[in-house]
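Two proteins, back to back. First:
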Amino acid sequence: MMNTRPVPLSNATLAELPEYVVGPGYDRATLTPGIVHIGLGNFHRAHQAWYTHRLMQMGLAKDWAIVGAGVRPGDSAMRARLLAQDCLSTLIELDPTGKSAEVSGAMVDFVAVTPENGPLIARMSDPAIRIVSLTVTEGGYYTDPATGALDTRHPDIQHDAANPSTPRTAFGAIVAALRVRRAQGLGPFTGLSCDNLQGNGTILRQAIVGLALLSDPDLARWIDSECSFPNSMVDCIVPATGPAEIALARQMGVDDQAPVTHENFRQWVIEDDFCAGRPDWDRAGAVFSSDVHAYEIMKIRILNGGHQVICAAGELLGLGTIAATMAHPGIRAMFRHIAAHEIAPHVAPVPGMTPQDYITLIETRFSNPEIADTTRRVAFDGSSRHAGFILPSVRDGLARGVSVEGLAFVSALWARYCTGQTEAGEAVAPNDPNWPALHKAALAARTRPMAWLEQESLYGKLHQDARFADSFCRWLTALNDHGVAATIDRFCAERVA
């Protein structure tokens, strides 16, 4: 699939794409926007935008084109790259049996990124926009870790409550747009979270309605009554894009400054609760279900939780990718044991898949050598990911009397990671929004392991449960005394048959 002269990606050059790169089979000039997506990055383009693109390939959903948006200054760089190539994206599937590429054309514009979000508010106020979707990361919903409610003390939330017409958050912009729509009689839209959160639609509703309550209770009641916020489960492993991915696209004949690589697996399960209509995403392979909760529990606990089981160990041992980490016999055995014995007991089957079958599927996906998904990317924001993906299984295990020994070991590995030094003595660059506090606690835990668990904003009262705390302290002491590799071997020798 070599092409010595890659085709610069644009509407004008689609007919010049190599024959093995599938381009849009529809006239993009006939598309009209129906969706604004906030937090537009690689995952969205490989997932929700792909499902929409596939419908368009069938001659459907042409009034559901996507407009990208962002609320961070850094989003301007992505906007510039995509607008320069007419918002087209090359999607490269990395299957161990071979690579393939297609160009997605479902996105047609990208809103200007400004501090007060005026252009975004105006676009969402357009009655043609019927869905506003988001990928703003698990930690981006301003949830108070102690209560689970909206953190009304956060400076961003306080700013938006005091300045509702010039908000700085995505949620403030959504509230502002809904205020305009209500005042002008334009009707509501659906808010669709595509982040890895259990009950992500419920959490999005909480953020939007809770923020609106701070400045306009009548508007908050209207939003709660008229808008819909379906829960959804999203799944596709999508690495970050760097020079290697851009070079790969060029090798496949496309000069794309923002290509997306992804695995050969996608899943999207959504509650069918859309107040202003929706695309028929099920015709492209998505599943509409009244029991999203069961699917999201399986995925969040086993896949996202499984990532947290292995990523700190991989980083500490200098294993740069998830596939390389899974190739380490000790880490692979550790993953199998913890997933099967300490996570799966708290996961119910879903149609066509048992928890044990899902573990086998995830083990295969994590081991795909074509996916250069870095351990550092997966380890980022552990303070949100451990809280969301690991600690629920800990609490379930304690409540049901099931072993949490391995999950305590996972927390010990994370604490060891946050000391900022690998097994080889190399520095670990800060990798969490709360890194200073985590680093301080990790250093204190070298001599007093409980200092780590006493971070109540993360662990709540778990430090008071001896079953978890004693196991954690034992494993962290072993990591400090004997090193990461030796302690993983010990864990496997003791726990893995």
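And the second protein:
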Amino acid sequence: MPERFSYLFILLACVLVTLPLEFVLGARVYRRPRRTALAILPAFAAFAIWDLTAAQRGHWWFSERYTLGPRIVGLPVEEWLFFIVVPLCALLTYEAVGRVLRHAT
């Protein structure tokens, strides 16, 4: 695998690792798209503002070596996907753990 796919591969791995939480443990995150979008939107906005500000100020940068190259408003496409994937995986985990705990009592 070329290194430029590294970031994208990590995001894909995060989604694949948490996907069973939806179907095996019944997290019901993908089945409620409106609720999921409303839960992810604040994190998306916070991450975007933070990253855009930090990148603009030179606090950090994104390696061309590990990203595909296309950028939106100065951030790699993978970074924008990160703003969706990480909160989605966290939400899946939260819902699955809550479901397991509710059924355990």
